[in-house]
Structures are given as C-alpha cells and as structure tokens.
Amino acid sequence: MKKIISFFVLILAFGFMNAQENFELSTLRIGPYKIFMDKKEAEKIAGTPLKVTDGDKKNNVKYNGELIGIQLYSGYGGEANPDGIVITGMTTTSKKFKTKSGMGIGNTKDELINAYRNYPHFNVNPSYDEQTGKSLKQAGYFTLEDDDAGTQLIFKLTNNIVTEITVYINEGC
To answer: What is the domain partition of the chain in residue ranges?
Structure first.
C-alpha cells in the first residue's frame, strides 16, 4: 500500500512540474516572457541581471533548458512609465515553443499558410542579401501582425522550414 501511495505522489509531483512549464508562443510572448514586460520582472524569471541592448545583441537566457534571446530597451514603458526599461523583442530556435495552432520550429511555410490563412494580417516576404540587395530564394519570413497589440510574430524560413521565431514590437504602427 505504501508503494502505491508513493507512486501516486511521484506521478502528481511530475504532473505539477510539467504544468508549471510555459512553452506558449504568440504575438505577445515566448514562454513566460512578454513584450513590454518590465526589466525587473524579466530578471526575476531569468534569475540573472539583464542589460539594455541594441538591435543586434540580446540577453541570452535559459528557460527550462531552452534558449531565448531577450532585447531590452529604455523608453518604451508606455504612458505610465515613459522611461521604463522593457522587453521589446525576443527570439528562439527551440522546438519546444509552439503557438496555439501548433506552429513552431520545424514547420513548413505551407503549414503556416494553412494554419493562419484566416488570420486578419499576415504576410510572406523573401529575405534579402544586404550587400547586393537581391532576394534570397532559400530564405524568407512569414509574419503575423497583431495590430491591436502593436506586435509581430515572425517565423524565419530557410528552405521553406521555420528555423527561428521572433516576437517584436511593430515600430511601423
């Protein structure tokens, strides 16, 4: 009897540990990190200090063993805190993060189009060689625009396969 009770306690413990994991991906978040999240809140989750970054470098943090690049910027804190330091962008190449539609790293361009064909604002664009300005046939982007939130969920495509995912503020709003 003690063995059976111990077994059920062990199963419940693992169930609760898995329930705490957050591998959600959306136009606002990657896992527990959200666009416009305050630096202090992000540092609490990361368990490490984070630095304000430019567009090229990101703070690399691990969440349940998966790498997330976090961009912090000063001055996007909104009306309540205009000089606040907040998350303005996040990137991952982890296969664990998925949208509610099940899309993530490894999905194809066709799967993205099928999953989001009724989404109000999406686009597919080629990537460009920065030196020549010519489009690259093997690389591109599938972008979901969240006009209400002012954010984008960007799937980077290499040979029509998702290889990187970025959540970013849409500065063009």
So the answer is: 23-32+60-71+89-169
